[in-house]
Amino acid sequence: MHSYARVYMDSTLFFVLGILGFSLATENFHWGYHGDSGPFYWEQHFKGCAGKSQSPIDIPREDAEYAEHLGFIQFNGYSDLRVHTLKNNGHSLQVDVSGDSFIEGGGLEGLYKVSQFHFHWGRRSDRGSEHTFDGTAFPMEMHIVHYKTEYGSINEALNKSDGLAVLGFMFKVTPFGSVFFFEKFLKKLADVKYSGESTHTSPMRLADMLPIPWQNLQYFRYNGSLTTPPCNEVAIWTVFTRSIFISELQLQQFRKLYANEKSSKSFERISDNFRPVQPLNNRRILRNF
Ligand SMILES: *[C@@H]1O[C@H](CO)[C@@H](O)[C@H](O)[C@H]1NC(C)=O
Ligand SMILES: *[C@@H]1O[C@H](CO)[C@@H](O)[C@H](O)[C@H]1NC(C)=O
Ligand SMILES: [Zn+2]
């Protein structure tokens, strides 16, 4: 009886909202990665997520076309020592980057400025990355998000087809991981255990997060989207072949973060926060090697 009544009320609510021609239901939808807030439902609330050039994708390594014009990505200001803001946004661990760091070259037209980086990971190490290589997933993937400086701000860039340049790095589990990189913020994760919390990192260089060596990196290139709602098709993707190292112990620290605010009544860990791969739909995948 009880559950019948609830279903009835929910459908009445949707009916009323439908009559108003007003999508309050969409505004109340809190997207996530599990159950009926998960990736398969995003497109019902965010039209963009049903687009034809979505990310992530599976990259068939042998089928990517070599493109001589691409060359290497140049990292500028990545060696400057700076303090950044670390935050738990309920979907991921995100680091908002302060100061000016840019990428150029690598077939990109113009200069792209760093805005933030964040991570996608699995509850277990047999999954977690968003992109896959020949169907194989990695335990974690980092995205460094840059916007085209010409557009002035990330919000403007989110509406331009070449607005963002996102760099994707895969992680590989090794016994000691990447001590240098993770020391800078793993210790801080206790300060951002709950959604909405933020803190500052120790002074760090963006370059220290990159695979070693970080010059002349090989990568795949394709045109795609944000991998989270509203899934804007505005991202030029660069997915690198060389992995960053991480240990199981370091991965465990990420898996302890909560998707809920501290004042919540129930808690869920942020886990398996990756979108499944999307259809390629005849897009080209290039490589610089
Ligand atoms: C930019 O915004 C306009 C108006 O909302 C929309 O029609 C257009 O598709 C958007 N462009 C991109 C690349 O998202
Ligand atoms: C991405 O889109 C732009 C603009 O349409 C196009 O010039 C470029 O060749 C595309 N890149 C790839 C890898 O398909
Ligand atoms: Zn991402």
From TrEMBL:
It comes from the Eukaryota. The lineage of its organism: Eukaryota, Metazoa, Spiralia, Lophotrochozoa, Mollusca. Pfam families: Carb_anhydrase. Residues 29-289 form the Alpha-carbonic anhydrase domain. GO terms for molecular function: carbonate dehydratase activity; zinc ion binding. Its EC number is 4.2.1.1. Keywords: Glycoprotein, Lyase, Metal-binding, Secreted, Zinc. Belongs to the alpha-carbonic anhydrase family. It is an enzyme of class 4 (lyase). SMART domains: Carb_anhydrase (SM01057). It is found in: Secreted. It catalyses: hydrogencarbonate + H(+) = CO2 + H2O. GO terms for cellular component: extracellular region; plasma membrane. This is carbonic anhydrase. InterPro entries: CA_dom (IPR001148), CA_dom_sf (IPR036398), Carbonic_anhydrase_a-class (IPR023561).
